[in-house]
Amino acid sequence: RQLYCHGCGGDCRLTHPPALQVVVWGATGFTGRLVCEHLVRDYKAQGIRWAMAGRSRAKLEEVKQQLTTIDPACASVPFVIADADDEASLAKLAADTDVIIATAGPFAKYGSKVVAAAVQQGTHYCDITGELVWVKRMIAAHHEAAAAKGVKVVHCCGYDSIPFDLGVLLLADHARQKLGRGLAQAYGLVLDARGGFSGGTIASGLHQAEAEASSEVAALMGDKYYLWPKEQARGSDKPPGLLPEWNAYAQRWMGPFVMEAINSRIVQRSSLLNGLYGPDFKYREAMAPGGLLGAAAMSGLMAGLGAMFALGPLRALAKARLPQPGQGPTRDAMMSGYWKHSMIGLTQEQPGQQPQVIVAECADRRRDPGYWGTARLVLEAGLCLALDRPACDAAGCQAGGVLTPASAMGMVLVGRLRQAGVRFEVTQSPALGKQQQQQPVEAVGAGAGKPIP
Questions:
Q1: How many whole angstroms separate alpha carbon 386 and alpha carbon 391?
Q2: Which of 110, 168, 203, 314 is 20 to 30 A from 14, alpha carbon to alpha carbon?
Q3: What is the DSSP code (8-state) at residue 357?
């Protein structure tokens, strides 16, 4: 492999390093910069061979200069100029790295040729999209070729949908390993979270609402098995309604969660790909603030968001008033953010028998869910693809295809995220003794790292 660096102003061919392990595509965007910062702060002593990629030499130079305030050695980090519409530049980019971490959205607008180049060149790929209509197109276009080549294309590796997808996998792994049971049903309950929105996320959502056929968006919203092949027999899982519901296992009221329509489809695709859950596995995701009034407020919020995405005048107002692409929450907002989930699993039992209940806590007490946190999640996914392939193979993960975090990297990624400070832990189970049963910890935000000047 040859690496062509355009950072010097010409087409110089680098001989060191001979190949990259990771390229951050979209490094000049809001989330891309954060991915680079995480990498520099926490992996600078580990010799990761990486580069930044984007279409603007001036902006890449700016990001590099900012990173040198953290580590002066970043002055030697290469960057590659490539354009989302230039197939030749993308092919060269993909050929020079083991993994592409993609952060440039809307992905339906800027991501298709990047995925195609990765599959063609035999390069693993992960991203932070939540645009499932586009993901479905990528499955149709590339799943078989990627599977044949042993290439892993892993969408939705940010807060959507790693914590939920891996949280369900944690329950299923415990049920099988400790209780000898399959997982019949799971709940992903968002107990608490603090964070903000960026212009890129808003732009992606609005782009899907405007650019995709309304019939396809309706199919997404109405089918938990949206990412399954058409010929695959469906189970009985159905999308939830907008009204609050009481969860007897959590002893909490549940209200609708804005990302349920994304995460639940990823979780159900994982159930198809990894074969570790029950034969008619069901998954329910919700906000669970604790009281009926809080759950009702979530219902009202969801109704308002649905109207915004469905009605053209409200979309136009949102574009004018909400953050623009490249803008996002303040540094303080990200550093004081956190998220905390309760994952509840019910085991598969014989008819007439009550399920055994497993409870796990998934949480990040030091990072907001959307940006500082999402950047770390997708970075760890990319490094898992680059560095942990033998462990993933040994764990029985899927070898290739258009996959999900749980099916591509499984419990190996759970272990990597634990080392990064993200909590994935079973706290209640019949398999745990009384002393091992834990009360959930309180979610407390804490800063991490110093701001870049």
A1: 11
A2: 110
A3: E
Return the amino acid letter for 351. Answer: P
Q: Cα–Cα distance between 130 and 369 in angstroms, integer?
A: 14
Element (H, E) at 63: helix 57-68
- Going residue by residue through the chain (453 aa), what tens digit of pLDDT does each one get? 334 444 444 443 333 333 899 999 999 999 999 999 999 999 986 889 999 999 999 999 999 999 999 999 999 999 999 999 999 999 999 999 999 999 998 999 999 999 999 999 999 999 999 999 999 999 999 999 999 999 999 999 999 999 999 999 999 999 999 999 999 999 999 999 998 765 556 666 666 767 788 899 899 999 999 999 999 999 999 999 999 999 999 999 999 998 999 999 999 999 999 998 989 999 999 999 878 998 898 888 877 776 666 667 766 766 666 666 666 788 888 889 999 999 999 999 999 999 999 999 999 999 999 899 999 999 999 999 999 999 999 999 999 999 999 999 999 999 999 999 999 999 999 999 765 777 554 433 223 333 232
The residue whose two tokens read 């764990």 is 395
Q: How far apart are alpha carbons 403 and 394 in whole angstroms?
A: 17
For the entire predicted model, the pTM comes to 0.89
SS3 1: coil
If residue 74 lies in a helix (H) or strand (E), which one and from where to where? Answer: none
For the chain, how are helix, strand and coil distributed in percent, rounded to 5? Answer: 45, 20, 35
Q: How far is CA 349 from CA 86, 97, 238, 352, 353, in A?
A: 54, 46, 21, 8, 6
| DSSP bridge pairs for 54 | 81
Distance CA 404, CA 266 (A): 7
**Do the Cβ atoms of 54 and 81 come closer than 8 Å?**
yes
Contact partners, residue 401, CB within 8 Å, separation at least 6: 143, 144, 146, 147, 151, 152, 153, 273
Residue 59 amino acid letter: K
